Amino acid sequence: MHDIRLIRDDPDAFDAGLARRGAEPVARAILALDEERRALTTRLQNAQSRRNEASKAIGKAMGQGDTESAEALKAEVAELKRTMPEMEEAERALGEKLKDALAVIPNIPFDDVPEGADEDDNVEVSRWGDKPVFDFEPQEHADFAPALGMEFETGARISGARFTFLRGDMARLHRALGQFMLDHQISANGYTECAPPLLVKDEAMYGTDKLPKFKEDSFKTSVSYLEPTDFIRAIQENGRIDATSRTAEEYKPFLESVEQKTRRWLIPTAEVSLTASVMGELLDESALPLRLTALTDCFRSEAGAAGRDTRGFIRQHQFTKCELVSIVKPEESEAEHERMTKAAQGILEALGLPYRTILLCTGDMGFGARKTYDLEVWLPGQNAYREISSCSNTGDFQARRMNTRYRVAGEAKKTEFVHTLNGSGLAVGRTLVAIIENYQQADGSVVVPEVLHSYMGGVTTLTP
Question: pTM for this one?
């Protein structure tokens, strides 16, 4: 969410920031809504003041025997009481309209983010590791991993496209990777382990900028789990329903209100639940920085990725990820971004996987980011680098949506919005793919990286 005051102060600078992302100017439209709302607020405040003044004047007029003035004042108060609720509703509606307009505007990139239209304009920052040299033609994981326990057909039979069933040592390696990532981020980088809910409310999704713009990319639960007592309570809260009304159209507003209150979203990433853990909080400065990590399943509809990576284990509807989230003071967020990126890089280096670090251009960044580094791991089977982690600094964009502030030390009345950051440390499934392809052998087996041996119970090689 953007600070409306910054748009008021310099609308041209705001639109210039959006233009760097290829977005259309919106400052004038936003300010027109803002001015309309503020004018109505002023009218409402004046009406409230006049109502109070007139109410006091009635008693004074009555005391002086001025019946005519008292009756006129009573009529004025009655009219104000009649019209003020309409003004209050109009003010509320304008406030919601302004909030909705601000909610779909992307974040403004930092000045050091390179300008560009798409991934072709991203900037490579660094590379690490030597690409493996094979004395045979390396294969893509989708071609030889099924013999090792990565069962695409089984997953599809059970759940449909973009689901995979892992079996035996393949499943164990997947589990070992996740556990290693979590342990490493806790011990080496000081993150606090969390076990957050996988189902979250609208507020958590909105606060972390996943709603309303990206609702089609996430899975929403139905309301069929409502207990009868909850349903009765919902009816009571939403007003009585005429028992003779049977058409779907008549019931629709009620059912929508119930659904709004009871639906939950499967998290697209633990960024949502970890970041939302401070939603609405006023934190003490001494509590910052907060560094949180969690190993969770994640769920994405991949609505915007139709036709991409349909083969293999790269893009799934359900996947496991070790998430990193930081809550920091504004002046610390840039340094924290570099620290978080190094924490993700450390996993790849410990596993001996070659990678490169990419600074995303303005046109390729996520909606809520001000600056993003992508880590791309080398996949010999594809002869290409592929994204395995994305680390982003959102500034105060999410904090404003969540209303999360901290109390400045030594200044009891001064509060500021925190800055939030998120990153993958790492995506487990994509790391599994990278290991399979980089450590593949001519006979179809895969050597397990040494750092994972203690997690594998003595298994050092996956064999067909």
Answer: 0.89
